[in-house]
């Protein structure tokens, strides 16, 4: 785990240096042109993140956005000792004072939990850990172990108000299901503050677009074929929107011919198996798209339909276990 963290950090530094040299070389000295484009790839939040921004302010925008990603990683990581989430998780049932931003995120995640019947539940973390999905030391736990840990799962036992967060003893939280989505919204804000109008942000599969493509056309966001991930199953055509996919191919391991993946059902403590292997959500906010993609994976097609009719502010593409595609009406999916 430590070795992996060191390797990731070295890779991140190299990529950042390449980006700085490349970026400086392209923009340095001259008055940048409007068709100027900058692209940067970094490793953060345990995933690959790419930002492609257009226009004369692209370089400054990406620099500010990159700083913002690292700031959020330091705030929300479950494994970094100084992070607010780490402090919340190690408070042994005591209230912990945290930033407004962290309380806002926890409250918003809990909101989605209550709207999805607990399909999204940030208190699932001890079980995520026990399967080894934190740190990639995968294992199939004993059922008795899962049953004991399930006793402490329950978003309704998280107290979150006035800059304080208090978990019940034994509970731990993980914002992994929403953090990258939120980070993409913040990246968009940083780019926009720098004057960038057209960009495509991809934080480990959490895609958020700004404006249009430079030629004025809509963006096209590819959706991976969950049964053959080197191929696309199609693409969504969008204006400025968030497109977030949760899939059973993103983080998984196999044991004795059986696949175990990282999205868990908070009711059972086992990998969610509601009949879908890939869920794509399209909506305005990347935070919402991220939260819903995880929740919908746990909920499956029927409950998702009910939520869709109730909320009316998102679109979806589901790929079922047997390869069928189920979509909401107002989505432009090109195969
Ligand atoms: P995502 O890739 O956005 O679907 O988020 C999956 C990540 O969220 C996992 O790697 C876990 O860290 C965490 N997680 C897994 N299952 C759940 C769940 N039901 N509710 C909340 N977080 C979850
Ligand atoms: Mg998610």
Report what the structure shows:
By secondary structure, the protein is α+β, with helices and mostly antiparallel strands. The chain has helices at 2-27, 58-76, 84-89, 100-115, 125-130, 143-150, 179-193, 286-311; strands at 37-44, 47-54, 95-97, 159-161, 164-166, 199-203, 206-210, 219-225, 228-238, 242-247, 252-255, 258-261, 276-283, 315-320, 325-327, 333-334. The strands form 4 sheets. The protein has an 8-stranded antiparallel beta sheet. A 3-stranded antiparallel beta sheet has the order 3-5-4, covered by helices on one side. A hairpin with a 4-residue loop joins strand 14 (315-320) and strand 15 (325-327). Helix 2 runs antiparallel to helix 7 (179-193). The protein is globular and about 60 Å long. The two termini are 39 Å apart. Bound molecules: adenosine monophosphate and magnesium ion. Magnesium ion is lined by residues 177-178, 246, 290, 293-294.
Detail the topology: elements first, then pairings.
Elements: H1 2-27, E1 37-44, E2 47-54, H2 58-76, H3 84-89, E3 95-97, H4 100-115, H5 125-130, H6 143-150, E4 159-161, E5 164-166, H7 179-193, E6 199-203, E7 206-210, E8 219-225, E9 228-238, E10 242-247, E11 252-255, E12 258-261, E13 276-283, H8 286-311, E14 315-320, E15 325-327, E16 333-334
Antiparallel strand pairs: 1-2, 2-6, 3-5, 4-5, 6-7, 7-10, 8-9, 9-16, 10-13, 11-12, 13-14, 14-15
Bound molecules: adenosine monophosphate and magnesium ion.
Which structural class should the secondary elements be placed in?
alpha+beta
- Unreliable residue stretches: 14-33
How many beta-strand runs?
16
Mean pLDDT: 92
Q: How would you spell out the order of helices and strands?
A: HEEHHEHHHEEHEEEEEEEEHEEE
The general outline is globular
Helix content: 25-40%
The portion of residues forming beta strands comes to 25-35%
Secondary structure tally, helices: 8
Spatial sequence of strands, sheet with the most strands: 1-2-6-7-10-13-14-15
Ends apart, CA distance between termini = 39 Å
Tell me the Rg in angstroms: 20 Å
- Distinct compounds present: adenosine monophosphate, magnesium ion
Task: Please summarize the sheet with the most strands.
Answer: 8 strands, antiparallel
